[in-house]
Design goal:
InterPro entries: Alkaline_phosphatase_core_sf, IDS, Sulfatase_CS, Sulfatase_N. It comes from Seonamhaeicola sediminis. The chain folds into two domains: 385 residues, Alkaline Phosphatase, subunit A, CATH 3.40.720.10; 55 residues, no CATH class. The protein is α/β, with parallel strands linked by helices and 464 residues long. An eight-stranded mixed β-sheet has the order 6-3-8-1-10-13-2-14, with helices on both faces. Strands 15-16-17-18 form a four-stranded antiparallel β-sheet, with helices on one face. α2 crosses α10 and α7 packs parallel to α10.
């Protein structure tokens, strides 16, 4: 009896293992999924995750480009607007002259987590610099990861994987590479197949460790340019009626419009999607095929998590690093401060949540993910994080959100539940009413000076 009592006491004294974190980052993913209201898209695995979690219908990123957006995700702070934002941070760490706050993975590591990244989590897949992004002396996020992995398969190196097409094709120059492609084969003829295989392997390894919780970040590259996916995914969109492109005209007046140089730099067979409707629709179908291909990779990861039983104690976050214009405002790409560049999917699931399969219309931003994950795992939220925990919204999806901020080197923007205001460095202002049918096509700044001043004050307070 005494031994039995002692055994029971010991069992009671053992602290419960903190929940694991699985963070899935998807590049260039528009909120154009079945679970976000677009029924022509085939995204069953992401939709299944949304059915188990909360889908944030008004999540906005803090920068319309991979590098600075991922900086905000991984540090919980606003940063430089360039793609080298994390490398600039790393340089300061290595110089050692000023104190640099811990990144999200480093913070979790400090709190007892095993931290692993696979694929494109920071700007460079695998998190290294150098000519081919594989120089282990040039680390994008020092002190962050116990392992930062990037399988390259037949694409030779991480730089080759980033813009790789089927069967090891590597981009040498944009103009020599097709902007889209469809090839017969299985998922591993494109780079994300290898990333997903490694991610599945890491889940198996991490779940075999019964002592430490894990923080596993997985970065899927597609649907990033060039749009390449196995033919089976493209076939799903043959003959599908695509929705009409909203406001396809180039905007009048001063805006953050640009000429889509990234997209236009690829081989387009002399075609322009702004003037060729057939070509535009083919581009959109290839983008959709890439989304379905990325969705399949998400499915493999979530299946492995469930197979191991770790899903019962794992918080899952699916995050799109920014949006992508498919012809809106005559833009094909990101990099603007229009809605299409900044609006991206966010889904959060945690094991004990009660509002599964719920949508929330609360306006939130990428900066909120770091404090939210701290809140959900029960570790301290660092005072230096600049976002807000979303736990209250997860508990009650009708809870109000807060304004979302984003920036480029030339302008900054604030999105509220009703308006978007964009402030250019030279002082010019764009103001759009999201309660009106014309949305971000009619600049109403001159007619609303009081609202402009109010939003300017919030924007400047946040960014300074």
């Amino acid at each position: 009896m005494f031994c039995l009592f002692m055994t029971m006491s010991c069992q009671k004294e053992q602290p419960a293992k903190k929940p694991n974190v699985l963070l899935i980052c998807v590049d260039d993913l528009r909120p154009e999924l079945n679970s976000f209201g677009m029924d022509y898209i085939h995204s069953p695995n992401i939709d299944a995750l949304a059915a188990e979690g909360v889908a944030f219908q008004n999540h906005f990123v803090n920068a319309p480009s991979c590098g600075p957006s991922r900086y905000t995700l991984l540090t919980g702070q606003y940063g430089s607007p360039g793609n080298n934002a994390l490398f600039l941070r790393a340089k300061k760490i290595n110089e050692g002259t000023i104190k640099i706050d811990k990144s999200m993975p480093e913070w979790f590591k400090t709190n007892g987590y095993t931290t692993v990244s696979v694929g494109k989590v920071s700007h460079h897949p695998g998190g290294r610099g150098g000519k081919n992004w594989n120089d282990s002396t040039k680390i994008e996020m020092p002190n962050a990861w116990d392992k930062h992995l990037m399988p390259v398969a037949e694409w030779e190196h991480p730089r080759g994987m980033m813009h790789g097409l089927a069967n090891g094709e590597i981009r040498v120059t944009r103009g020599d590479m097709d902007v889209f492609q469809t090839v017969e084969g299985d998922d591993n003829i494109y780079p994300d197949g290898a990333i997903t295989d490694e991610a599945v392997k890491q889940i198996e390894e991490l779940t075999s460790n019964k002592e430490n919780p894990f923080f596993l970040a997985i970065g899927i590259i597609k649907p990033h340019l060039p749009f390449g996916a196995p033919k089976s995914y493209y076939d799903r969109y043959e003959g599908v009626n695509l929705p009409v492109i909203k406001h396809p005209q180039k905007p009048e007046g001063k805006t953050t419009w640009h000429g889509s140089s990234e997209f236009m730099g690829y081989n387009r067979w002399g075609k322009n999607p702004n003037t060729d409707t057939v070509f535009a629709n083919d581009v959109r179908r290839h983008y959709a095929a890439c989304v379905s291909y990325a969705d399949a990779q998400v499915g493999k990861v979530l299946s492995e998590l469930k197979r191991t039983g770790a899903d019962k104690n794992t918080i899952v976050v699916l995050w799109g690093d920014h949006g992508w214009h498919l012809g809106e405002h005559a833009i094909w790409g990101k990099h603007s401060l229009f809605e299409e560049s900044l609006h991206a999917p966010l889904i959060i699931h945690y094991p004990e949540m009660t509002h599964k399969g719920t949508n929330t219309n609360a306006v939130v931003e990428t900066l909120d993910i770091f404090p939210t994950l701290c809140d959900l795992t029960g570790i301290e939220i660092p005072k230096y994080t600049q976002g807000e925990s979303l736990k209250e919204i997860l508990v009650n999806p009708n809870t109000s959100g807060h304004a979302a901020i984003a920036y480029t080197s030339k302008a900054s923007t604030i999105r509220t539940a009703t308006h978007r205001m964009t402030l250019h460095k030279d002082g010019f202002v764009e103001l759009y009413d999201h309660t009106a049918a014309d949305g971000e096509t009619t600049n109403i700044a001159d007619e609303n000076p009081a609202l402009v001043e109010e939003l300017k004050q919030i924007l400047n307070t946040k960014l300074h």
